[in-house]
């Protein structure tokens, strides 16, 4: 049966790296049907709406979605899209590769980020001129879902170190619940785990990332700690991600629209192509996912490289080299 992939490039370099990943997926000859959807700043300017209903419908009707990058309208685009696939877990691996000048070459981390609540719930108000508030929502159900997913992920992918990130000494009620629930899940399974205050963890990740594996995080902490860890392995151009729901999923690079380099044809497509590999795994094309990862690793090792990795190659050069390796 033909599998339908929704492709939403979004803003900025999303318009460059998403076609690159589609080119790689198409080269596998799996018979995917790619259907494009509009979203983002330009769409909002044209139509008044950053995420048209037709794009939401496309995502729901597809077997999986490949998304590029969100710009100014991120809160109106990527958060509702993650909701559209009912994704409760955002999986963000940060891995160092041979051939890339990484600050910490032994880094092999996977952030399992809660994807539905925390401060990203969108409950903000201006309660008086010059006075604003934000409501942070943490529920036992969502905390249990992400912890179960995180411990399962570690077991299935061979990680023996699991860390629960939190700030329960300050956010006693909300992160108190997150921590207590995640610990319960670890205890029920009888597996070892650590807990870490997220601010101290940020420092430890920079000094000794090799001591960590899977990190289970509340929403904002997962967003920030994964970006921080991109700095350990060579930059945001390398980090893919999966937004996983029970019946659907959306895959996107961790990076945003990078307006400083958009339109120049020099964006690193690696993160989006590796997001494509995660999509392949999700659709049970594990062998092809492995082939894509090997091709990417080969190109990272021997080049060509885009300028973010110290090279002079274009997005198209790197994509062509990966397709050739396939
Ligand atoms: N492809 C990821 C992206 O566009 N990120 C922009 C952004 O603002 N992300 C916020 C988030 O990941 O929650």
Layout of SSEs?
Blueprint: E1 4-10, H1 14-27, E2 33-36, H2 41-47, H3 53-61, E3 64-69, H4 74-84, E4 87-95, E5 108-114, E6 124-128, E7 131-134, H5 140-156, E8 162-166, H6 174-189, E9 194-197, H7 198-207, E10 214-217, H8 219-233, E11 240-245, E12 249-253, H9 270-282, H10 286-302, H11 315-325
Parallel strand pairs: 1-2, 1-3, 3-12, 5-10, 8-9, 8-10
Antiparallel strand pairs: 4-5, 4-11, 6-7, 11-12
Helix pairs in contact: 1-9, 1-11, 5-6, 7-8, 9-10, 10-11
This protein binds glycylglycylglycine.
Report a brief summary of the structure.
With 326 residues, this protein is an alpha/beta fold. It is built from eleven helices and twelve strands. The structure holds glycylglycylglycine.
Helix content: 40-55%
Order of strands in the sheet with most strands: 2-1-3-12-11-4-5-10-8-9
State the major sheet. 10 strands, mixed
Shape: globular
Small ligands present: glycylglycylglycine
- Poorly predicted segments: none
Q: How many β-strands, per DSSP?
A: 12
Distance between the termini: 23 Å
- Tell me the fraction of residues in β-strands, as a range: 15-25%
SSE-based structural type: alpha/beta
Whole-angstrom Rg: 19 Å
Element pattern in H and E: EHEHHEHEEEEHEHEHEHEEHHH
In DSSP terms (H or I, runs of 4 or more residues), the helix count works out at: 11
Mean pLDDT: 97
């Amino acid at each position: 049966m033909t599998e339908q992939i929704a492709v939403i490039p979004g803003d900025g370099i999303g318009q460059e790296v998403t076609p690159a990943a589609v080119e790689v997926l198409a080269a596998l000859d799996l018979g995917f049907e790619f259907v494009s959807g509009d979203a983002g700043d330009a769409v909002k300017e044209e139509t008044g709406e950053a995420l048209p209903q037709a794009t939401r419908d496309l995502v729901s009707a597809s077997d999986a979605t490949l998304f590029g990058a969100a710009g100014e309208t991120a809160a109106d685009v990527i958060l509702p899209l993650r909701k559209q696939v009912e994704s409760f877990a955002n999986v963000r691996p940060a891995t160092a590769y041979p051939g890339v000048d990484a600050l910490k070459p032994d880094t092999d981390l996977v952030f399992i980020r809660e994807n539905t609540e925390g401060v990203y719930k969108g409950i903000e108000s201006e309660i008086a001129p010059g006075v604003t508030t934000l409501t942070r929502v943490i529920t036992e159900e969502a905390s249990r879902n992400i912890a179960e997913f995180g411990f399962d992920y570690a077991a299935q992918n061979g990680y023996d170190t699991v860390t629960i990130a939190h700030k329960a000494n300050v956010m006693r009620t909300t992160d108190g619940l997150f921590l207590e629930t995640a610990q319960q899940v670890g205890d029920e399974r009888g597996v070892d785990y650590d807990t870490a205050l997220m601010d101290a963890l940020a420092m430890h990740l920079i000094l000794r990332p090799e001591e960590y594996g899977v990190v289970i995080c509340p929403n904002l902490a997962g967003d920030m700690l994964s970006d921080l860890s991109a700095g350990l392995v060579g930059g945001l151009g390398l980090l893919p991600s999966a937004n996983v729901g029970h019946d659907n999923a959306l895959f996107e690079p961790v990076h945003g629209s990078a307006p400083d380099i958009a339109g120049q044809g020099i964006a690193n497509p690696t993160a989006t192509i590796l997001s494509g590999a995660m999509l392949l795994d999700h659709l049970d094309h594990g062998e092809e996912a492995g082939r894509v990862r090997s091709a990417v690793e080969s190109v990272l090792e021997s080049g060509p490289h885009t300028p973010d990795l110290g090279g002079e190659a274009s997005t198209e050069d790197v994509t062509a080299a990966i397709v050739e390796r396939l």
